[in-house]
Write a structure and sequence with these properties.
The longest helix is centred in the first third of the chain and has 22 residues. The chain has one domain. A five-stranded mixed β-sheet has the order 1-4-5-6-7, sandwiched between helices. The radius of gyration is 15 Å and the shape is globular. It is of the alpha+beta class and 138 residues long.
């Protein structure tokens, strides 16, 4: 499969659709792990491949370091998705996702906070890095 900006845009749209469906059914106010399990189920129902709690490898000075870093959902082997259920999104959450993107060497990532009134307008944030700039449009 060829990764393009168009493909990633569509994938983010599909994952956001799954999050909207989960949020529509459950609403805000639950724990992150509840949304995580329901997102995994919704992605499966929609035929979207993913890994849950993907180990994010860390290399330090040429040595693999065993760390507890886990990406909530890794969709289609290209899109890390971090899930939150918090009142306030802290800057460290952005840094976390950007670091996962760098370590996984992927061009785009998605942050979804379920503790909002509307996912699409207030609960999702998409990130890109330098790898994205070099992708073809189509």
């Amino acid at each position: 499969m060829r990764i393009t900006k168009s493909y990633l845009k569509d994938l983010v749209y599909r994952v956001n659709g799954a999050a909207i469906e989960v949020h529509k059914i459950l609403g805000p106010g639950l724990l992150e792990n509840v949304y995580h399990k329901c997102m995994a189920q919704e992605l499966s129902l929609r035929g979207i491949a993913y890994e849950s709690e993907l180990f994010v490898p860390i290399g330090y000075k040429g040595i693999a370091v065993d760390t507890p870093l886990r990406c909530d959902l890794y969709v289609e082997n290209i899109l890390p998705v971090e899930l939150k259920a918090v009142n306030t999104m802290l800057p460290v959450f952005d840094s976390q996702l950007l670091t996962y993107m760098r370590l996984l060497e992927v061009p785009k990532g998605l942050m979804i906070n379920f503790n909002v009134s509307h996912i699409y307008t207030k609960g999702q944030k998409t990130f890109v890095n330098d790898l994205y700039r070099n992708l073809p449009e189509i």
